[in-house]
Amino acid sequence: MSANCCTGDGNVMILACSGASNVGQLSNQAAVELTREGFGKMFCLAGIGGHLSGFVQSAKDVPRMVAVDGCSVGCAKAILEQARVPMQHYLVLTDEGIEKNKDFNLQRADVERVKAAIKRTLNEKSLSAGAGAAACGCGCK
Question: Are 141 and 133 in contact (CB under 8 A)?
Answer without folding.
Answer: yes
